[in-house]
Design a protein that fits this description.
This protein is an all-alpha fold and about 190 residues long. The chain has 8 helices and no strands.
């Protein structure tokens, strides 16, 4: 079982969580290139998010553990970075609340389905696109570039629309999953 836990893919997922500490350091430091490092760390974290799933499939290392760790690492990393950017005054609080509430509800729903049907619900494409847009929002917010403000606002609202859309898909899975359990038990 250990070889199914400590794979390249899961290490890449865990690396996103580890990257939070240096990101926080550079975000709040008064180093001349601090923001450049923040942007670089967000880019690296985003790359690891794309690579972990790709490598898991390519190297035949897909596991239930990886299916749990990858989205959990995403939620921890995105949530932590978003909160840090709110504290730094670079991101609106309402947006972070939307991101965190959606992620918490999806996590709770996923646990419910796992316990009820013994199925691990995987990400859906609108959710993956929403996470990519959230990463772009975090990147643009950390740049603090006035010339990118319009693009940032468009990206914020587009990510909200995709978060809502993907959340509806998760809700449908939850109710279909609940009905299927009830149907099988009768």
């Amino acid at each position: 079982m250990l070889n199914r836990i400590w794979t390249i893919s899961t290490l890449l997922s865990f690396s996103r969580i580890v990257l939070i500490a240096p990101l926080a350091y550079f975000l709040f430091s008064h180093l001349p290139n601090g923001r450049t490092w923040v942007v670089a760390i967000i880019v690296v974290a985003t790359i690891t998010d794309f690579l972990d799933g790709y490598l898991a499939r390519k190297l035949h290392q897909v596991s239930d553990f990886g299916k749990i760790v990858d989205p959990l690492a995403d939620k921890i990393c995105v949530g932590a970075v978003a909160v840090l950017l709110v504290v730094a005054g670079d991101l609106p609080l309402w947006y972070v609340v939307v991101v965190l509430v959606r992620d918490a509800l999806i996590l709770i729903g996923g646990i419910y389905i796992r316990n009820r049907k013994n199925i691990i619900v995987q990400s859906n494409w609108p959710g993956k696109i929403a996470v990519s847009l959230i990463a772009l929002v975090l990147l643009l917010s950390s740049l603090k570039a006035p010339q990118a403000e319009s693009f940032l606002q468009i990206t914020i609202w587009l990510s909200v629309v995709l978060m809502v859309f993907s959340f509806i898909i998760y809700i449908q899975r939850l109710f279909i999953g609940s009905n299927a359990v009830k149907g099988n038990s009768v």
